[in-house]
């Protein structure tokens, strides 16, 4: 079964919001994922009864080279 690409949010009865990143195969922080995270955090903040936010990612890789390059 193919994994869905994007960011999902589930809210439990206990007030815990679980935000999950899914961007196979490495769950990189591409622009659409960052936008999705911002959207889900804003959605969670709109809920008056949330107590905690848990961010889940099974595996993530980061391109360190992008941080080593000087700003243009």
From TrEMBL:
Residue ranges crossing the lipid bilayer per the database entry: none
Any one GO BP annotation for this protein: fatty acid beta-oxidation
One MF term in the entry's GO annotations: isomerase activity
Cross-referenced Gene3D superfamilies: 2-enoyl-CoA Hydratase, Chain A, domain 1
InterPro entries xrefs: ClpP/crotonase-like_dom_sf
GO cellular component: peroxisome
Domain of life (superkingdom): Eukaryota
Keywords carried by this UniProt record: Isomerase, Lyase, Multifunctional enzyme
Protein name per its UniProtKB record: Uncharacterized protein
Organism: Brassica oleracea var. oleracea
């Amino acid at each position: 079964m193919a994994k869905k690409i994007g960011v999902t949010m589930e809210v439990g009865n206990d007030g815990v919001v679980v935000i999950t990143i899914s961007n196979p195969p490495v769950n990189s922080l591409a622009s659409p994922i960052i936008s999705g995270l911002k959207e889900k955090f804003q959605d969670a903040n709109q809920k008056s009864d949330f107590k905690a936010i848990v961010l889940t990612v099974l595996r993530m890789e980061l391109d360190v080279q992008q941080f080593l390059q000087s700003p243009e």
